[in-house]
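Weekly sync, protein design subgroup
Attendees: M.S., D.O., the rotation student, P.L. (late)

Item 1: inverse folding check
M.S. brought a backbone from last month's batch and wanted to see whether the design step gives back something sensible before we order anything. D.O. pointed out we never logged the input encoding, so this time it goes straight into the notes. Structure tokens as presented (207 positions):
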């Protein structure tokens, strides 16, 4: 259920400030630079050229520990989708392609992250949530960091087939996830393109 909906309108000036000072897109490629205030790390990643529109918002839920700040790069020619509590804010269309990082509120503190446990729990949760879902797990090392990898294919809630790949690692002793998603047709190279983008990932302490 959507909570604190009135706060969303008040976030607009803050989000504009965040886009200008905390996030940027380098002109020479499609590289996005984000500063994650909770993790106190800078994230830099080169994304497919089709992902050209950055959206930042705070997603509030009924359980304050699940509140997240979301950073999502989407295709501006397609629909825009943002989580809002347990629901989605969807504008105009139902086809999406996007990359998302999210972080908890600064007051949250989670148990130490264990990669193997995350893979097993996430796979089980996905299979419980949706029927006819295909989930494959793997691991990947990027810049000396080990990532758990979960590839998901399932019938879409909107149309066609959902494909997503979730890559997670340990940052400051806690979980951080990088999620690529599409429900566009004819995206046979989606997983390979997502991994290629992740291989450009740079994570640095501080700004």
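Designed sequence read out in the meeting:
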């Amino acid at each position: 259920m959507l909570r604190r909906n009135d706060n969303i309108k008040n976030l607009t000036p803050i989000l504009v400030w965040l886009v200008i000072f905390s996030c940027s897109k380098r002109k020479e490629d499609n590289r996005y630079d984000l500063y994650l205030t909770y993790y106190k790390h800078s994230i830099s990643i080169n994304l497919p050229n089709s992902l050209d529109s950055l959206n930042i918002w705070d997603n509030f839920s009924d359980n304050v520990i699940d509140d997240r700040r979301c950073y999502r790069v989407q295709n501006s020619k397609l629909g825009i989708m943002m989580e809002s509590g347990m629901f989605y804010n969807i504008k105009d269309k139902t086809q999406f392609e996007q990359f998302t990082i999210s972080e908890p509120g600064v007051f949250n503190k989670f148990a130490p992250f264990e990669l193997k446990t995350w893979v097993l729990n996430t796979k089980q949760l996905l299979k419980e949530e949706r029927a006819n879902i295909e989930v494959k797990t793997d691991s990947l090392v990027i810049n000396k960091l080990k990532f758990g990898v979960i590839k998901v294919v399932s019938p879409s809630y909107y149309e066609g087939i959902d494909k997503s790949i979730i890559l997670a690692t340990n940052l400051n002793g806690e979980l951080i996830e990088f999620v690529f998603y599409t429900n566009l047709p004819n995206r046979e190279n989606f997983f390979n393109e997502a991994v290629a983008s992740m291989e450009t990932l740079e994570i640095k302490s501080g700004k």
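Discussion: Residues 1-21 have pLDDT under 50 and may be disordered. The first helix runs from residue 6 to 10.
Action: P.L. to compare against the previous round before Friday.
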